[in-house]
Every structure is written in structure tokens, then in C-alpha cells.
Amino acid sequence: MPSLISRLKKYTALHREQRRVVLATLLFLPLFWAGLRVLGFSRFRAWLARRPLAASGQCPAHAEAAATGELVNRAARHALGPVTCLTRSMWLCCWLRTRGVVSELRIGVRLVHGRLDAHAWVEHAGRPINDVQEVAEHFAVFDESLSPGSFSAP
């Protein structure tokens, strides 16, 4: 297990914007986890969607968006409290939205030994940015973007 000193060295070696991503992730992931538990998926997602998409000068390259996804994943390993793929992915979408980057939350399901297994990830320009490129091959993916009311009780 890496020591605190080696972690700090890795952190200080990051560029300024990368450090902002890491700090924001460590701060907001527990809040997103709590928000999902308190409000539920539909209401929390609707609340997040009210935040306007920030203006952006240009669409970032896929590699840049994927690098942000990797930073969020790495920071999530050190976050306080439980972190799920849904929490990470919702946070990443929110972070990108504040930067004017259009992304899409994707949710897929599969059966593993008779049990339903669900997974969430983020796509930018139709490609995963916080998971392996072939993630959609392992799950039955919802074909369209999930509206805030997708999982509401009738």
C-alpha cells in the first residue's frame, strides 16, 4: 500500500486542473452517494439536470475526457464512504457539465449466476470515458438516454 508521502508526491505532480478534479471528487463523491440515498435516482438526477450546461469554447478530445474519467476513478478509490459506479458516473457527468462538456450517463444490466447485475458508466462522443471501451458488450444497455422519471413507481 502506497504511503501518504508517495500519494502526496503523485498529487503534487498533477497539473492544476487535474488537482481540482481530484479534490472535487474527494469532496463531492460522499455528497453524491448521500444524495442518491436520500432523494433516489430519479429525483437526484432531475435535480442535477436543472443545472445549466456551461458554455464551452470547444468540445474536448475524447482522450481529454477519458483522462478526466480516469482521474475520477483513481480519486474515488480514496474517497470517504462507499462509492458505486453510479455515484462515480453521476459525479463525472456533473463535473463535465460544469465544464461545458456534453456526456451521457449509460446504465446496463446483465444476469450473473441468476442475479441481476447493473453497471453505470459515462460516454463522451459515444465512447466510454470512465470504463473499458468494450463495457457495453458485457451489459444490455438501455438504448436511449434515461429520463429523470425512468425509474419512478407507477
UniProtKB/TrEMBL annotation:
It comes from the Bacteria. Residues 36-141 form the Microcin J25-processing protein McjB C-terminal domain. Keywords: Membrane, Transmembrane, Transmembrane helix. It holds the Pfam family Transglut_core3. The chain crosses the membrane at residues 21-41. InterPro entries: McjB-like (IPR053521), McjB_C (IPR032708). The keyword Membrane applies. This is Lasso peptide biosynthesis B2 protein. It comes from Candidatus Accumulibacter affinis. The lineage of its organism: Bacteria, Pseudomonadati, Pseudomonadota, Betaproteobacteria, Candidatus Accumulibacter.
